[in-house]
Write a structure and sequence with these properties.
The chain has 174 residues and is α+β, with helices and mostly antiparallel strands. It has helices spanning 11-33, 38-60, 118-128, 136-143, 150-170; strands at residues 5-8, 62-65, 69-74, 77-82, 88-94, 97-104, 107-112. Helix 1 packs antiparallel against helix 2 and helix 1 (11-33) packs parallel to helix 5 (150-170). 20% of the residues are buried.
């Protein structure tokens, strides 16, 4: 398998973050139009900036796998590790969050299960790693990697609560 594969952050996470950003942006506009206290507008504006940065970072983050190695791309950063240079592969699961650590000497590259189709990513990654670097425990995690949905649920709850706040503002209650 020598083809190049690209994996991005799960859309199930990006969708509620995008909706939350839109609701917060609408709330900012409403607070400005209603001449709400500046502290309220500044707070909502700060939330909008943080959400915009979060959405941008996660929308552009990706992992590229090819026959030679793995590349993790983020805004302004690109880190490549060649499979032939790997010295160790570790994996740990904490509350359904899976962290795969690819070691090259003293430096490492961390991959999490925040990416879409992570099961395929993990299996292909382990197939391309030199033999002997993957323990049975890591192979066991690869056969059925956990799926973490906590951040997604939290974002949807935030969307609902933000929408309720927006409705209260529009009705003149808040």
């Amino acid at each position: 398998m020598t083809e190049s594969m690209t994996f991005t952050v799960r859309r199930a996470f990006l969708l509620p973050v995008g909706l939350l950003l839109l609701v917060q942006l609408a709330l900012l506009i409403v607070t400005l139009l209603q001449n709400q206290p500046p502290s309220k507008s500044l707070f909502v504006g700060g939330v909008v900036v943080v959400l915009a940065a979060l959405l941008l970072e996660n929308s552009l983050r990706r992992i590229e796998l090819d026959a030679e190695g793995i590349t993790v791309c983020r805004i302004g950063r690109r880190r490549r590790v060649r499979f032939a240079e790997l010295t160790e592969v570790e994996a740990v699961c904490i509350r359904k969050r899976l962290f795969v650590t690819l070691w090259v000497g003293e430096s490492f590259l961390l991959v999490t299960n925040a990416y879409g189709d992570f099961a395929t990513l993990f299996q292909v990654l382990l197939q391309r790693v030199p033999p002997g670097l993957v323990s049975e425990e890591v192979k066991g995690l690869a056969s059925a990697p956990p799926r973490h949905n906590g951040n997604i649920v939290l974002c949807w709850v935030a969307v609902v609560f933000s929408a309720l706040i927006l409705v209260r503002q529009l009705l003149g209650v808040g």
